[in-house]
Amino acid sequence: MEAIEVSNRNIAVPLATATASVIWLGTAVALFAIGSIDVGALLVLIGMWALGCLGLAILRYARRAARADGLHDEIADLAGRVSADASRLESVLQQLEIAGQRQDGRIYDAVADVHASVKRFQDVQLPALRRHITNAGINDSEQVMAWTELREVLGVTQPMPPLRGWAASPDILRIVVNRLLRDRPALVVECGSGTSSVWLGLAVRKVGGRLVSLEHDAEFAARSRELVASYGLDDTVEVRHAPLVEYRRTPQSEPQPWYDLRMTDDLREVGLLFVDGPPAATAPDARYPALPAFLDAGSQDLVVILDDADRPDERSTVERWLEEFDGFSARRPPAEKGAVVLERVRGSDPA
């Protein structure tokens, strides 16, 4: 029954729109023909109709895309329909231009302006909108798949805290969790805390390890501890408040903020370092200190996974890491915000 209702609604809305358009234009032309309205009023009515049709096409597209389940084919089909709507509108406007040119030059000029606006939308804005929503749909679908895989591999049955936005996205967590399950490190360090601490905590518990999450904000650290405890992970995950202090790689280096290293003095043989903090606004190349700060504390097989790697500062950070620290290689698995997996080249000197 629901499918039938949806189908009827999909037919009824365009039919009602077409009927209203015919009535609107027919009434406007009739009033002009009998002298009830002047040319200016007719232009206003035609302009309102044209812009209304364009606005309705965009609204229909946006609403359907918002309800879409993220599948690429469906979103591409919706984009195609909007393109067809714009083409039909352009055809009508061309006919109105011809008619207007015959009747009154002012009608022609007004319709030509509307036609030009529609043409710009069709040639420039619509393709960009189509690409954006299509890519967003593909990405949304990938995030749903990653989220589902995370739940299955971690055996999650209870509701979980949301991801994306400020929090890590499912696809980057899938990369980290898969590496955790493969390498089974005894100690994992996370720069930043929050919902990711819960998801990673489940994976670390599964391999019998321990997770230490560093958080520079005291209030957020307290909230992260509460969140971790609410999932019964406080025996596996430790959220440490490590305020940002001045950090220098060498005495001659320019200082920059980094987590207080006194809070990490006891950490040894770190097998995996997940870098998702501090925030980018902290400083240029805000996450650069992650590798030098944990290099000595890292195990021989240390793996560093960097989130938000598509941002310019993170790209610069990875370039600096590879230039300044021998024996590491980097790969970029696909991820919504960009990801880099940095690991030691086999046979290289860990020192």
Quick tags:
351 residues; alpha/beta; two-stranded antiparallel sheet; 14% strand; Rossmann fold; 2 domains; Class I SAM-dependent methyltransferase; membrane
Task: Give a verbal description of the structure.
With 351 residues, the protein is an alpha/beta fold. The chain has 2 domains: 2-150, no CATH class; 158-344, Vaccinia Virus protein VP39 (Rossmann fold), CATH 3.40.50.150. 57% of the residues lie in helices and 14% in strands. The protein contains 9 helices and 9 strands. A hairpin with a 7-residue loop joins β8 (328-331) and β9 (339-344). The longest helix is centred in the middle third of the chain and has 50 residues, at 105-154. The chain is elongated and about 90 Å long.
Structural class: alpha/beta
Radius of gyration: 29 Å
- Strand numbers in spatial order across the main sheet: 3-2-1-6-7-9-8
**CATH domain class of the largest domain:** Alpha Beta
* CATH topology label of the largest domain: Rossmann fold
Could you give the distance between the termini? 68 Å
Number of strands: 9
Largest sheet: 7 strands, mixed
User: Which architecture of the largest domain would the CATH scheme give at its second level?
Assistant: 3-Layer(aba) Sandwich
Please tell me what the overall shape is. Answer: elongated
Q: Strand share of the residues?
A: 5-15%
Number of domains: 2
- Helix-strand sequence: HHHHHEHEHEEEEHEHEE
CATH fourth-tier homologous superfamily of the largest domain: Vaccinia Virus protein VP39
What's the rounded overall pLDDT mean? 78
Tally of individual helices: 9
Helix content: 55-70%
Provide the low-confidence segments as ranges. Answer: 1-15, 64-71
Protein name: Class I SAM-dependent methyltransferase
Keywords: Membrane, Transmembrane, Transmembrane helix
Transmembrane segments: 12-34, 40-59
Pfam family, one: Methyltransf_24
